[in-house]
Structure formats: structure tokens, C-alpha cells
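Note to self: keep these together.
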Amino acid sequence: MMKKTSIKAAILALASVTLVNCSPADNSQAKADSAKAVKTVVKKIEPKTTVKKTSKALVPLEDQYPVYTANYYKDDKLVNKYIDQLVAIEGTVLDLKSGVDQRPIYQLQLSGDVNKTLWVGSLVKVIGTSVKKGQTLRVLGFFDQTQKASEQLAKLTKDDVYLIGFCFHNQHSGLPIYLNKWMKHCIAWQNNQTVENLRK
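Structure:
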């Protein structure tokens, strides 16, 4: 299981991330680049936007980015054992805010049988508008207590829990947005790796 301390370290220390636009049809080039990205030393520089051209899908489109939203809730309430654990959820964007240091905040109406909204704080710096209201997002990240969130996010919700997201896939545009530091997990998730396997 990935340690929560690594997420905290990312929030406090991460100063440079990469917005990676990968074709949903494939990620072979992105996979090759990920090895370099994971080894990159974080420096306090402006984030770069990189467009990755790909050629052959590793798994069919319909099998990419699996989500398990309903598994984490019972009677529309989050099951506490999933706090601090890696999860994958899907929801429709109801609202979005510009967060601290160009890291957006999304309000999602969760998909499936879960009658619940959830605020998601992104670890990825995003320049420009890549997500719009009404679009469906799939997110890989961690549930955390709202009292630990930024002041801006904490003011947006009365919920006790929010989601820290580091891998996003826009189901409407096909645009994936990955955090450089955890790109290998994002690519594995794209290639139909389950959350249980990614926790190892």
C-alpha cells in the first residue's frame, strides 16, 4: 500500500508537475517517458505541458481507468476504512474552482448508485481549461479528512472527507491528466490495473 506520508510530502514539497495529454487510444510512448518522469528531481520551476503522441493501445478503451465508486460507500456514506487508501472514483463535474498554485478543485456528483457529491483537490497544476462543468471525470487518489485540506477547499464543504487526486481522465474529451511523480501508477491504472494491485 502506498503510504499516506508520501502524499503529504507531495503536497508540501512538490513544486513542479507535468500536465500530460495522452491519446486515449494508446500510451506506449507515455509509458516509455514515465520511467524518466519518475526519476525526475522536483525543482521549483514553472510546470511544463507536454503532448504525448501514441500509436497502439495496450488495452481496449472500454477497459481503461477502472473505477469502484459504489464500493466505498454504504447508504451514501463513506466507509471509514477507505480513508487514507488509494481509490478510483467517477463523477460528473458540478463546479470547479481555481485552487492554490494553479491546482484546481472539482465538485463531483458521484456516479452509479451513490447519491453523494464529493470535492476533489487536484495535486496537478493545470494551465488553461481542460475540464468543464457537466463532463465526467475518473479520478485516482486518496480520501483524506477535510480539516487537513487547504483553507480554500475546507470552506467549500461541510463534509468530513474530500479526495486528493493525482490521476484524472476526462471521459468526455478523452484527456488524461497525470501527476509526474506518480505517472507510473496513472499509466498502470489506464491499462486496467485494479486499485488493489496499485496499492501493493
